[in-house]
Specification:
33% helix, Rossmann fold, binds 2-acetamido-2-deoxy-beta-D-glucopyranose, alpha/beta, 467 residues
């Protein structure tokens, strides 16, 4: 289930992201990844087995999968003793090194040298392999992340000479993996980056591997607020950057959320959202509290999807909502080339509803006490729905309602008889693997909401806004 879930969002790339991170850029990444492994073959010992599968697609997106079967084996082969010293490579989700001292980083060879004297506790030549992306157990994602090596070398003269000195700490992370999918941008990168870097108050240098300029542009406003220094892409960088300390990899707690008991300064998701609001200059801190519906019109945002998992009766839903007293806004998250504009739309609303998908990640911009209504399509996707959005919403002080559709609300009734396993035993498809689930339930299912049944959920949301 876990693996299934990891791939579900990864592959539900939105249209906007498809354009940005389309087929050719995937091929490009792949070629870079392949040539990387070829060029550096001697220094990596056993090479990962690269299996290329041209995976199927209905739309513009053809995904190439890289399976790196050697990642987990390689990690297992490390000893406990190594782990204690400077790299936590046993964390189940995010491998992570935090090192102070004489740090020298050579991007072009993907190496972080830690020079120490003969007397030091690290008076031994050691090396750790790290892929600095927080989805370690997902081989598809990690296959798209460049492997770095952290080497402790005895004797300062053994490490390459510094060509650039920096007097602030560095944080090195990858923009590979599933970067470009809105959910993963936040869950795998931005929330972990906040957790790892906020404590430095901007006095920190971000170093990027697998860097992509469109990603940096998209999240410019967030990055600017976390670091006062322009990011450095180290992929083909021949400089030797020297730092007093470095963190390689990002801290990770849970999906699209933070565990305050583990975070520096007790940071919470609330802090993350306050930070986002300030980064995007969003006006509303809290949702409306209705006293009189004639004057206080709550705003409902319907997240529209065009290609897959679409509402087929959007106008009817919007009309019913207006009759209840809502002001209705319909917007498609996927076409939001301008994140600032979309963040403003979301922040202006009190209730956000949408079918399960990466677009719901935009709850991060909702005001406190707003309400998320997640529409769960058929396919045994309940676990996924609460894991990805239901639980994170609660950590964000967003109230959460779920609406599970019935057979007759799914377009699948036009394709399968009612006694088919698609309706009777949807979980059985998960055993057949992700591709099956994806093609049946995620790619070919649209939703025609039964507005008289759904009315009760929208009324409940109205009721909550009175409290
Ligand atoms: C570490 O490696 C260097 C050469 O790379 C070698 O000169 C040195 O003796 C080694 N030190 C230890 C403690 O193995
Ligand atoms: C990076 O490394 C490759 C392979 O070692 C080398 O051919 C290339 O010239 C290097 N590039 C730079 C900018 O140093």
């Amino acid at each position: 289930m876990k693996m299934l879930y990891d791939t579900i969002l990864a592959k539900s790339f939105s249209r906007y992201e498809r354009k940005k991170f389309g087929f050719w850029s995937l091929v490009g990444c792949l070629i870079i990844a392949l040539s990387f492994f070829t060029v550096f073959k001697p220094s990596f010992g056993r090479l990962p087995t690269l299996k290329l599968q041209s995976a199927m697609s209905t739309g513009a997106l053809t995904l190439l999968r890289i399976e790196d079967t050697s990642i987990s084996k390689r990690l297992e082969s490390k000893t406990k003793e190594e782990t204690k010293s400077m790299c936590n490579i046993l964390d189940p989700r995010s491998a992570f090194c935090e090192v102070e001292g004489d740090i020298r980083i050579h991007g072009n060879s993907s190496t972080i040298f830690v020079a120490s004297s003969q007397m030091g506790t690290l008076a031994e030549n050691k090396s750790w392999s790290i892929r600095p992306y927080a989805r370690k157990e997902d081989e598809t994602a990690m296959g798209l992340v460049t492997e770095l090596s952290v080497k402790s070398v005895v004797g300062h003269e053994e490490a390459p000479h510094c060509t650039l000195y920096h007097n602030i700490p560095a944080i090195l992370f990858s923009l590979g993996g599933y970067a470009g999918n809105h959910f993963h941008d936040f869950s795998d990168i931005l929330v972990p980056l906040f957790l790892t870097s906020r404590q430095f108050n901007g006095e920190v240098q971000f170093l990027l591997s697998d860097s992509r300029s469109w990603w940096l542009t998209k999240f410019e406003k967030v990055l600017e607020r976390l670091s006062k220094y322009e990011t450095i892409s180290i992929d083909r960088d021949s400089e030797i950057h020297c730092f007093p300390s470095v963190i390689v990899g990002l801290k990770y707690h849970k999906e699209l959320s933070i565990d305050p008991s583990k975070s520096p300064n007790g940071y919470t998701m609330k802090d993350f959202r306050v930070f986002l609001r300030s980064s995007y200059s969003l006006k509303r801190a809290t949702a409306i509290r209705i006293r009189d519906l004639a004057h206080d019109k709550p705003r409902l945002l319907i997240i529209s999807r065009r290609k897959t998992r679409s509402f087929t009766n959007e106008a009817e839903i919007a009309q019913m909502a207006r009759n209840l007293g809502y002001q209705v806004v319909v917007a498609e998250a996927n076409t939001a080339t301008d994140l600032l504009k979309f963040a403003q739309i979301v922040n202006s609303c009190d209730v956000m509803m949408g079918i399960h998908g990466a677009g719901l990640t935009n709850i991060v911009f909702l005001p406190t006490n707003a309400i998320l209504i997640q529409i769960v399509p058929l396919g045994g996707l309940e676990w996924l729905a609460s894991h990805d959005f239901g639980n994170p919403a609660l950590d964000m002080n967003i109230r959460y309602l779920e609406y599970k559709i019935k057979e007759e609300e799914s377009s699948l009734i036009q394709q399968y008889p009612l006694d088919h396993a698609v309706f009777k035993d949807p979980l059985s498809f998960q055993k057949q693997g992700w591709e099956t689930v994806r093609s049946i339930f995620m790619e070919k299912q649209n939703v025609k909401l039964d507005v008289s049944r759904f009315r009760a959920t929208l009324s409940e949301a109205l009721e909550l806004l009175h409290q």
